[in-house]
Design goal:
This protein has about 475 residues and is mostly helical. It contains 14 helices and eight strands. The protein has two domains: about 220 residues, no CATH class; about 170 residues, Cytochrome c-like domain (Cytochrome Bc1 Complex, Chain D, domain 2, Orthogonal Bundle), CATH 1.10.760. Strand 6 and strand 7 form a beta hairpin. The longest helix is centred in the N-terminal third of the chain and has 29 residues.
């Protein structure tokens, strides 16, 4: 009897332990703890991942394009007589849509608290999500994808999503290239997209050997988070990767987008409006928020981590390209430092308008820029940047909310980008949420509480187009 009782108690005890183990497993499986890391080992077959994401793509893109339609007037309305260096017209007019029965004048009369509490902050002034924010990654405009296919046979198409903004809101393609060392040559691009296939023919005899090698590295494909050889890529076929100039095409920009690598969790990561590399020689901060102190720092960091969402573990798996600081990073930086702003024939040597060349409206805009609008506090002449970071605290005007996978909340301090050549660098703001210079003026009129008149706004736009 005693033995039987012992066996019975042991069985009960073992059953209880098993229940605790099962319960612990269920509990552990039901609680998803936040992590800074991406999964390294992919357990789902690649073909299954691709089919699943291809099937989901139409709904993802429809949801995102509906958001853009709600926010903006996306029509093609070029400004008369205002073009970029290679002839592409720039878009004109305020494209951000206002709430029903609201005007810009009424909105500017309200306090930030009133705008926030009444839910009147225009949708187009909220942070702009990535086309698929939960997934993120580099996304390229179709015209760039087609050109790289044509020249290199390298395919930058993603099977899970497409680029979003219409072509007419993007920079010239291909952009012009101006060199600080050879201003006499004007645009040295010859109307071509610079790639590994043609860089030597275009620049041999213009650059020194170090600069040529730096350019070669800038147009050489290296593995990246979405474009690589592994089973968690987002290209149908294994990919050689991307180049620096796939985003900063011809040392400028093509509107390609990505998510910043320095923020977690995913919903707080900012969409990137890829900035131009023109004029990096006069800049002292690199990265919209990272405040890297040299272009060499930026070049090295991009290859080691930013290409892989800031995850060195994933970088090792997918094929990180370690740039050698003493030569390669230096050579790449030296070439980038030669990229000049486009000519601005109406500006004098101090970066101000020459009264003999400028229109009356442009001169008025310059006066407002340096006085009532206070633009020059952050954007002083001659290059129209103070090389600092500023926090606009746009979150004063709205309550945090989730927008297509992006948590719209505080942006924090952002680098002051130069305004020289600004008409050639749409869209605007660090995440590309503003499509035209008119949108920029309306945004800052509210952010700064400037109370600008319609004529003053028009004059400011005219001045910025002349920079």
């Amino acid at each position: 009897m005693k033995g039987k009782s012992t066996r019975h108690l042991l069985a009960v005890a073992l059953t209880g332990c098993l229940c605790l183990v099962v319960a612990a497993g269920v509990f552990a499986g039901s609680v998803k703890k936040a992590t800074s890391y991406s999964p390294v080992v992919i357990t789902e077959p690649f073909d299954s991942i691709m089919k699943r994401m291809q099937a989901a793509k139409p709904d993802i893109m429809k949801r995102h394009m509906n958001l853009l339609e709600q926010r903006y007037d996306l029509s093609n309305r070029p400004a008369q007589g205002v073009v970029m260096s290679r002839g592409k017209p720039i878009q004109e007019g305020v494209r951000v849509k206002l709430p029903k029965d609201m005007t810009w004048e009424k909105l500017s009369a309200l306090t930030p608290e009133e705008v926030r509490d009444k839910g009147l902050w225009p949708l187009g002034f909220y942070p702009l999500p990535h086309p698929h924010h939960a997934e993120g990654g580099m996304v390229f405009p179709k015209f760039h994808i087609e050109e790289i296919k044509k020249q290199e046979g390298r395919d930058l198409t993603r099977f899970d999503l497409d680029y979003d903004l219409p072509d007419h809101f993007l920079p010239d393609f291909p952009p012009a290239i101006f060199l600080t060392t050879r201003p006499d040559l004007g645009d040295v691009s010859q109307g071509k997209v610079v790639t590994i296939m043609n860089y030597f023919d275009l620049f041999n005899g213009i650059l020194n050997p170090k600069q040529l090698e730096g350019l070669r590295l800038l147009v050489t494909p290296f593995p990246q988070q979405q474009f690589n050889q592994t089973d968690d890529r987002r290209s149908e076929k294994p990919s050689r990767g991307v180049t620096c100039f796939d985003c900063h095409v011809n040392g400028h920009s093509n509107g390609a987008t990505h998510l910043v690598g320095d923020i977690r969790p995913q919903e707080f990561r900012h969409r990137l409006d890829i900035p131009s590399l023109r004029g990096v020689n006069i800049q002292r901060l690199f990265g919209s928020q990272r405040a890297l102190k040299s272009i060499e720092d930026f070049t090295e960091f991009e290859q080691r981590a930013a290409y892989f969402d800031g995850d060195p573990v994933i970088a090792t798996k997918k094929g990180v390209n370690i740039v050698e600081r003493g030569s390669q990073a230096h050579f790449m930086a030296e070439f980038q430092a030669l990229l000049d702003f486009p000519p601005a024939p109406k500006l004098d040597i101090y970066g101000k308008l020459d009264p003999k060349k400028a229109t009356e409206l442009e001169m008025k805009g310059q006066h407002i820029f340096f006085t009532k609008a206070q633009c020059a506090v952050c954007h002083p002449a001659p290059y129209y940047t103070d090389n600092l970071m500023h926090n606009l605290r746009a979150e004063r005007f709205f309550k945090p909310k989730m927008i297509n996978g992006r948590m719209a909340s505080a942006d924090g301090p952002i680098k002051t980008f130069p305004l020289r050549g600004i008409k050639e660098s749409p869209p605007y703001l660090h995440d590309g949420r503003l499509l035209t210079l008119e949108d920029v003026v309306e945004f800052f009129n509210l952010i700064q509480g400037l109370k600008l008149t319609a004529e003053e706004k028009k004059a400011l736009v005219a001045f910025m187009r002349a920079l």
